[in-house]
Specification:
The protein is an alpha/beta fold and 324 residues long. The chain is 27% helix and 26% strand. It is globular and about 60 Å long.
């Protein structure tokens, strides 16, 4: 079978399109034939050796995928051959990741994907929307009528936060770095938009909210040039939720503002199984939708990584192992 493997860390050129032995499912595992493989920014961080841990080289990247069950290992119950599934909660580890035509994973990581959700959509819906639900419901507890500012509103997670916030009845401000991205965010639910590369973010937020500020900020970038302005946009008793640091990760915190305005900063890495089912239910009702920038052949993973690193996408890139 074909897979994308790295034997050294570095630029996108270290992604090798290779032949690997077909995996066999062990006891308690399922063999899944990949149909749509999601790409994440932290894939580029692992590739370059900048992530918090590194699997043993060589290894296959990827921890997000949807496909169908090709075979069952001994003792697996509740799944059947041919069933549509998505993989959730999977850690690459030394056994390898999901940038491959076939993967053998623990049955507990394979969840049924509803027939009415396409494979590519399923890869997005079951990855980033659960995180958005976790941020906005479990952590920020957004209420109808509250103001929510989403930074990086057309990114893979940002667009999901816009849609979930709107679904919860919030008044949503989309923050993005280009006029066309602001307009795109409005097309999937944002009430207002701010180009934070051209406009004064805080000034615009205060103008929209009657000088009060927003109740919640989804700040998943950690760009030191933007973070302070997003933080300063919070109203008294505001909450900032964050689950990303590809903009740098080290920012300056105004502690006086934090305690005088009774603000909260909440780290929200990870998700919960109930949030996955919330996302599937919302997608089934047509209340949210996957925003996919493009679908590329698996063999072009290196080109996909370069596109992501240049911030040239809106939504997600999906890798298709069957495309030529």
């Amino acid at each position: 079978m074909k897979a994308i493997q790295i034997s050294r860390t570095g630029g996108a050129e270290v992604l090798d399109y290779v032949d690997l032995p077909m995996p066999e499912p062990a006891a308690g595992e399922v063999l899944v034939k990949a149909e749509a493989i999601g790409m994440n920014y932290f894939d580029t961080m692992i590739r370059t050796g900048r992530y918090r841990w590194m699997p043993k080289l060589p290894f296959v990247l990827g921890n997000e995928m949807s496909g169908h069950v090709a075979a069952l290992g001994p003792g697996v119950r509740g799944l059947k051959v041919g069933q549509k599934v998505f993989i959730a909660g999977y850690e690459i580890g030394n056994r390898g990741g999901l940038y491959a035509e076939y993967v053998a994973v623990p049955a507990g990581n394979a969840f049924k994907l509803p027939d009415n959700i396409a494979y590519a959509d399923g890869s997005v819906i079951t990855r980033h929307f659960p995180m958005a639900f976790n941020q906005l419901t479990s952590k920020a507890d957004v209420k109808p009528g509250e103001w929510v500012l989403v930074m990086g509103a057309t990114g893979a997670l940002g667009n999901c936060c816009v849609q979930v916030a709107k679904m919860l009845g919030a008044k949503v401000i989309a923050g993005a770095g280009a006029d066309e991205r602001v307009e795109l965010a409005k097309s999937y639910g944002a009430d207002f938009g701010i180009n934070y590369r051209k406009q004064d973010l805080l000034e615009e937020v205060l103008s929209l909210t009657g000088d009060q500020g927003v109740d919640v900020v989804c700040e998943n970038i950690s760009d030191p040039t933007l973070w302070a302005r997003a933080f300063n946009s919070l109203a008294i008793n505001g909450r900032m939720v964050t689950a990303g640091a590809h903009g740098g990760g080290t920012v300056t915190l105004d502690m006086k503002r934090l305690y005088m305005r009774r603000l909260r900063i909440i780290g929200t890495a990870g998700t919960n199984v109930p949030d996955v089912y919330k996302a599937l239910d919302a997608a089934g009702q047509g209340r949210i939708r996957a925003i996919i920038d493009r679908i590329m052949p698996l063999r072009e993973a290196a080109a996909a990584h370069r596109i992501v690193e240049k911030n040239q996408i809106s939504g997600k890139i999906i890798l298709d192992p069957m495309a030529s």
